[in-house]
Amino acid sequence: MLIVISYTNPEPIFRQIMEQIKIAIASGDLKEEEKLPSIREMAQELKVSVITVKRAYTDLETEGWLVTRPGLGSFVARVSRSDLKEEKRNEIKKVLLDIVDTAAQYGITAEEVAGLLASIENERKGS
Amino acid sequence: MLIVISYTNPEPIFRQIMEQIKIAIASGDLKEEEKLPSIREMAQELKVSVITVKRAYTDLETEGWLVTRPGLGSFVARVSRSDLKEEKRNEIKKVLLDIVDTAAQYGITAEEVAGLLASIENERKGS
DNA sequence: TATACTGTGTATATATAATATATACAGTTA
DNA sequence: TAACTGTATATATTATATATACACAGTATA
């Protein structure tokens, strides 16, 4: 599993790890019931403390994406793939809602926000 | 000037203050050259430390929205209103770009994101 | 079958940086 | 000098990250 952490990224390391594991699950790169690298393995690969990786795994378990068994390892939880995608959709919707509200306070209309989004898609197609 | 801070909001207090001052400037509620409440006044109103308000004012000055004169007070900088709106537009575009990228990693298309945004607007009109 | 080995996760104590505070200091004007 | 203004210093609390010592699970082997 390829995980890359950035020290310039203000996001804490354990969250960067969490996010990339979620993406691995959502993309099918990590399958249900599959064993993840041990916290020591991953800590060594990322040149990061074991505790930091543990924090990422523990939080992912709390959110229901992993199951950890002491002495055995951590495993991808059941039925997490489509759930993860749905969770992300809701998360995105919440952020969009916040954007529209904030924009309004600055006198930027919802139509204008939609226009910005459309311009991003067009620029993407162009390249 | 009405500012409301929330302790459940994970955003630090000084950033909540900054954001609401920016909105007051963008909306014209605070005009160019106008004097802001003294840090002590605002600290007392918000039941918050003077240092926290100072931090907000100092950062706003660094970003160019305020000018502070020791012994006199803090004042809205010149030509900040339209600049602020433009800055916000750029900020929003950056966030939208990030959303589209992240969504793609979860197998959510840009069209789907646009759809979510459209649904928000529709729900708003409905209410 | 007992036990030692090697893998796994866990708990405790510590360091550093960001946020928020209280209190003492200094500039401006009347 | 009085009554405003912002500023500087030292301290507390919380989040993030770490090192090190501990405990659990499976397996090889004496």
Q: How is this structure best described in words?
A:
The structure is a homodimer of 127-residue chains. The first copy, chain A, has 127 residues and is mainly alpha-helical. Chain A has two domains: 13-76, Orthogonal Bundle (Arc Repressor Mutant, subunit A), CATH 1.10.10; 81-126. Helices cover 61% and strands 6% of the residues of chain A. A two-stranded antiparallel ribbon of chain A has the order 1-2. In chain A, a hairpin with a 3-residue loop joins strand 1 (66-69) and strand 2 (73-76). Chain A is elongated.
Q: What is the mean pLDDT of chain A?
A: 95
State the end-to-end distance of chain A. Answer: 29 Å
CATH architecture call of the largest domain in chain A: Orthogonal Bundle
Structural class of chain A: mainly alpha
In short, what is this structure?
Helices cover 61% and strands 6% of the residues of chain A. Chain A has 5 helices and 2 strands. The first copy, chain A, is elongated, with a radius of gyration of 18 Å.
